[in-house]
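Board notes, transcribed. Complex of a protein with adenosine-5'-diphosphate.
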Amino acid sequence: MSSDSPRTANETPPLSPAPPHGGAAAIGRALFEQSPLSTVVYDPAGRITSANAAFERLFGLRVADIVDSYSILEDAQLAELGLQPAIRRAFAGEAVVLPPIRYDATRVTGGATTTWTQGYFYPVHDADGAVSSVVLVHVDLTASRAAEDALRRQSAELEAQREALEEQIEEAHALAEELRQANDALLAATEQAAAERAAAERAARDVGAILESIGDPFVVHDAEWRFRYINRPAAEVFGASFNTPAEHLLGRVLWDVYPDIVGTKMEHEMRRAAAGRELVISEVYYPRHGNWSEIHCHPMPDGGVATSWTDITARKRAEEAEHYLAQATAILASSLDYEVTLAALARLVVPALADWCTVTVVGAGGALQQLAVAHVDPTKVDWAHEVQRRYPGNPDSPSGVAGVIRTGKAELISDITPEMLEAEIRDPEYLRLIRGLGLRSVIIVPLVAHDRVLGALSLIAAESGRRYGEADLALATELARRAALAVDNARLHREAVQARAVAESANRAKADFLAVMSHELRTPLNAIGGYAQLIEMGVRGPVNDEQREDLERIQRSQRHLLGLINDVLNYAKLEAARVEFRAERVPVRPLLDGLEDLVAPQVAAKGLHYDCCDADPDVALLGDEEKVRQILLNLLSNAIKFTPAGGTIRVSADADGDVVRLRVADTGVGIPDDQLERIFEPFVQLARGLSTGHEGTGLGLAISRDLARAMGGDLAAESGPGQGSTFTLTLPRVR
Ligand code: ADP
């Protein structure tokens, strides 16, 4: 606020200097003195001429103390406050309103008063218009100032409070926003959680359905081996096989529920899957039910294990059966002595398939003969033999071994009861012995071959506690079938061996007879020839031409008969394997060269050409030279016989690798294809009736082939009707 503002004049209270005398002057004086407004009058020099009580109260001083020393025009404090110009203007005659000031009276008086005042200067002019005095009225603003301050403070506080409130409101808004957002997020999260829960429930339902749909039994154990999940097939297994409802198992520890698993391979494998965190697949045997399973143990993320299993008992049984059958077959094929093989078979079966195994066969005359008894303990076998000797059993019994052999039908008793034994066994001592064996289960299968019951195989379970079922019966039946075949084969073999021995001895007798007969015939024949020759030579007197012709016929017939007998003798000797061979190196060329001289007369007589190819001088064969020459002469004599006049006979040889081939070829009548093999059979002659002068036994080629084969070679023919024939003798080559 400016102290020289024109407005201030209007606000100035209408005061006049104190009246100079009584009456109005006194009133004025009284008013001056009593006025609650601090009023002080200055002379034109700024010195106090008078002041009222209110002034003294306001400033806390006594005017008398300062009246001599003080001049407002020199007031340092007011000068500091910058009021001197306004004061001067007032002393120059202008009514001035000072701005409110905080005035510290202590600086003037040494007192302790500090006040807020606002001063109003009223200059008093004399008649000349000069300023005679200046009245200063102070309005005490201290209280109002304090109130103002308080008000200001309050309003500041209020402002602060308002600001704080505003802040709080803002915060509240922010909080509300945050809350709203959080709420939204929460809502979204809740929705998501609900969706996830629904999805999880769906997944769980799906997984449940999937697990349920697994055909194999499937269980899940937690890390402490408590049952967590059991699918339907597994529940059925637990219900049927163990009499344990699945719901009773959940939460219970596997090893507590089934202590018989502890220590088995099954426990080992399940723990291996859990510890190694790897899938374990294994075949395990469950002793309580005697069955096999293939288990798959999958480690679970929580440390547990999910196990599924498949019953592979049938497959294992089949493998076991295959194993035993293969072994049985090997045993049965190992010997033709069936007593030995059946005893070995009985031993094979014990103890894997039975505690006892017996084999009974039908002997000569139909009597039953216990061929083999097997038990792991040999002393028990001796004991069984003794019992069998003392109690041979009733051969007419409708059941047991005798019954099975009679009917040919197998018997399976899974569970032997004491009553059964009592019904079967009459003798009390025998019954006591049998009871002592603790028989549990039995299978008796007939040994049948070619519809003949040869005997029976019995498998008996005792101390092992094994119970036979249909699978065991099937295995035993197959074992019995193979055993029966082996027995039958052995019997057939024995019969064949015997028949062969009989035939061989008959053949030997025939050969012996032929050899003897031939020998015996040759003596008189030689005598006939010899005497005919003597007569022809005229030793007994003169012989006329007719007689000579007869004698020649006699001698031709004698030679022919002698030839026949020699052939028969040779053949008989060969048949009886009485011919001895030498194995020697025979050079081929001289052998062939020497033949021509031997056949030259017949060749010439028939008007044939004889051709002998030069053989390699280094080629030699391994054989008996005499026998080889015999074969070649036989082939040459046939060639001469069956080749008409003008034909050619050709002898040749070649060698190839380890063999030497000697060939006799002719251009004769030939041999039909279908007869090429027959001519090597004994006594076979082709077109016998038609051939004239072709005498013979039909033994020549048979003997020749036998000789060739006996020397490690062979004899074969190639021919065709009208094409001539080629006979090839093959023999081992020697270097
Ligand atoms: P054989 O000569 O005593 O009759 P073989 O066993 O030597 O007895 O001969 C059997 C048969 O084979 C002869 O009867 C003949 O029919 C036929 N045969 C053998 N060699 C020849 C040949 N070179 N040409 C035609 N046929 C032959």
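The pocket of adenosine-5'-diphosphate is lined by residues 638-639, 642, 666, 668-669, 671, 679, 684-686, 696-702, 725 (CB under 6 Å). Residues 1-19 have pLDDT under 50 and may be disordered.
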